[in-house]
Amino acid sequence: MKTVLRISAVLSFLFFAVGGLVLLGVAASGPHSDNVIAVVLAVFLLGVAFFVGPILLFAAERVGGKEG
């Protein structure tokens, strides 16, 4: 159970972080007037990644079974 929770924490961090980095790359690819929306969404996704990933990892360590 603890391993599954750790894997879910890493995968959720990677999902949000990759999404934010891809959007940031798209926003930086060219000068457009609507890039502000993409940058805001990218920064939001990166913030979620750095919040949700550690919270899930903390939960995995806290409520996981006593395996080791």
Relevant terms:
68 residues; mainly alpha
* Number of strand segments: 0
Q: Major sheet: size, sense and barrel closure? A: none
Encode the helix/strand succession as letters: HH
Give the quaternary arrangement of the chains. Answer: single chain
Helical region count?
2
> Structural class of the secondary structure composition?
mainly alpha
Q: How would the global form be characterised?
A: elongated
Low-pLDDT segments: none
Helix content class: over 70%
How far the N terminus sits from the C terminus, by CA atoms, comes to 12 Å
Strand share of the residues?
A: under 5%
Please compute the radius of gyration using only Cα atoms.
Answer: 16 Å
The average pLDDT is: 87
Question: What's the helix and strand layout?
Answer:
Elements: H1 2-28, H2 35-63
Describe the structure in your own words:
The chain is mainly α and 68 residues long. 82% of the residues lie in helices and 0% in strands. It has 2 helices and no strands. Helix 1 packs antiparallel against helix 2 (35-63). The model has no long low-confidence stretch (mean pLDDT 87).
Brief sketch in words of this structure:
The chain has two helices and no strands. With 68 residues, the protein is mostly helical. The longest helix has 29 residues, at 35-63.
